[in-house]
Write a structure and sequence with these properties.
Elements: H1 3-13, H2 16-19, E1 22-31, E2 36-45, E3 48-56, E4 65-71, E5 78-83, H3 87-91, E6 104-113, E7 119-127, E8 132-140, E9 150-152, E10 157-159, E11 163-165, E12 168-175, E13 180-186, E14 192-197, H4 198-201, E15 208-215, E16 221-227, E17 239-243, E18 251-254, E19 259-266, E20 272-278, E21 284-291, E22 296-302, E23 310-317, E24 320-327, E25 334-342
Antiparallel strand pairs: 1-25, 2-3, 3-4, 4-5, 6-7, 7-8, 8-9, 10-12, 11-12, 12-13, 13-14, 15-16, 16-17, 17-18, 19-20, 20-21, 21-22, 23-24, 24-25
Length: 359
């Protein structure tokens, strides 16, 4: 048999499940010093790992602060910075709605790299006993020293995650209490404008919550969106949005299941891996394959997790998928880092075979 046909036969006879198999190489707890440690993101910057998360007395306590930790190898971690806000410090930023008490909770921090090579951290402050919300951004050259906080987006709109594409920052914000979304963009990460809003962005309002936008090489935008079961909501199923430039017209696919803490990464072989909280059966942090044409999530690995969990950061590095997340399955909510080997990237796997020539 010719080598080409032998290779073709091997590919055709390989079970599809084997092509998508995953191995949990390692998972370790990397931080648990606060009473409650949660809501992570993960990034490589200047040859180091950076992980950001919220610290507080509890899941919804009024004292949330943002901790950044760093590591050279992903094994030994140290604190890089801790940011918390006081009523006095926040008032100096001249927000439209001033704080009236000591309820100052920074929530769900995320990291990204700006086009000029700086780290950007964004979070949202909830204050005045959770009646008011203000999204904020910080910038750093090294991940240790951060500039003054900048008010971003509109008051009362929680801008959850920022993603840069071709020099422009995009992110979905929503009125936290009413779950009504809008898509923002910015040319500098400081001044955000509304690109498309409310029902023109997502038709099923109220309900939208956390959202992650990623861009494919052909400039297609994907939005992985969580929905909450609130009064007037038509569904609590997660949705996948798809749009082409200029990203003002979106089509949506129902994922068929509730999700939480959505994140998404495109792998070098063009597969899309999502990290979400799943609620069917045991609540868990799950890794799933995402198929945009069908709008389906297919779980391929449940990470050691349970209870209060999810909100993952995703980085593909040196042949492994690195995943930061939090979980309370071992007691209090703590920060974990998992390393996952995917079958196509296993040494000696089919990914190492030469490309098939044209027949």
């Amino acid at each position: 048999m010719k080598p080409t046909l032998t290779l073709l036969a091997a590919l055709l006879l390989t079970p599809l499940a084997a092509l998508h198999a995953a191995e949990l190489v390692e998972v370790r707890r990397i931080w648990d010093l606060a009473p409650h440690n949660a809501f992570t993101d993960l990034l490589r910057f200047q040859g180091r790992w950076f992980c950001v998360f919220r610290e507080g007395e509890g899941h919804g306590s009024p004292d949330g602060a943002v901790r950044v930790i760093t590591s050279a190898d992903g094994m030994k971690w140290e604190s890089s910075s801790l940011t918390r806000l006081t009523p006095e410090g926040f008032s100096e930023m001249k927000p439209r709605i001033l704080p009236q008490g000591f309820y100052m909770d920074l929530r769900d921090p995320h990291l990204c790299v700006t086009p000029d090579g700086r780290l950007m951290l964004n979070s949202c402050l909830t204050y005045n006993d959770r009646r008011n919300w203000q999204s904020l951004g910080w910038f750093s050259d090294d991940g240790k020293t951060w500039g003054k906080a900048v008010l971003i987006a509109e008051p009362q709109y929680w801008l959850w995650r920022v993603t840069w594409h071709k020099g422009i920052a995009y992110g979905v914000g929503r009125i936290a209490t009413e779950r009504i979304p809008r898509l923002y963009r910015s040319h500098d990460g400081r001044q955000f404008e509304v690109l498309v809003k409310d029902g023109d962005f997502f038709p099923h309002v109220p309900g939208p919550s956390e959202a992650t936008i990623r861009f494919l090489p052909d400039d297609t935008a994907l939005c992985l969106l969580r929905l909450n079961r609130v009064a007037g909501a038509k569904t609590d199923h997660g949705h996948l949005g798809i749009a082409r430039p200029p990203y003002t017209h979106w089509t949506w696919k129902d994922l068929g299941m509730p999700i939480g803490g959505p994140n998404l990464i495109e792998l070098p072989d063009k597969r899309l891996a999502a990290a979400v909280r799943l609620y069917d059966g045991k609540i868990r942090t799950a890794l799933c394959w995402l198929d945009p044409p069908t709008g389906k999530l297919d779980e391929f690995l449940a990470l050691p997790s349970g209870g209060d969990t999810s909100y993952a950061g995703l980085v593909f590095h040196e042949g492994l998928l690195w995943v930061s997340y939090y979980s309370s399955h071992e007691g209090k909510a703590s920060i974990y880092l998992a390393r996952v080997r995917l079958e196509r990237f296993r040494k000696g796997s089919l990914s190492d075979l030469p490309s098939l020539p044209s027949l």
